[in-house]
Amino acid sequence: MRFRMELFVKDVRASARFYSEVLGFVSGEESDDYMSVRKGDASIGLGAIENLPDGHYLKPQSEQERKGGGVEIVLEVEAIEAYYRSIMELGYPVHGALARRPWGATDFRIVDPDGYYIRLTEKR
Question: Where is the VOC domain positioned along the sequence (predicted)?
Fold first, then answer.
């Protein structure tokens, strides 16, 4: 089994820039309303949320409604300190500073342009 994720976003190109410039993903498939990005075995599809049909579970019915809460995307990386420095140098906001956790992982968290919560963690 191979895991792949799709995120529905307000601005496909802005999200692709975030994953490329901040996290080092490489752009793949591309159209006006969909792009994919990849890094190693991680693959993320970025689709335009506005193109979801009415009634689709993930399409918000109002500005206040947001599906996908309670989800944390976890990316395991090598050289976590280098990732952290790189993101700090870009001036991108960090939500949870780099720290060694009681369970042994070293990690930090950021939020993408659409509010998806991402934890970058170093393999134990």
Answer: 1-123
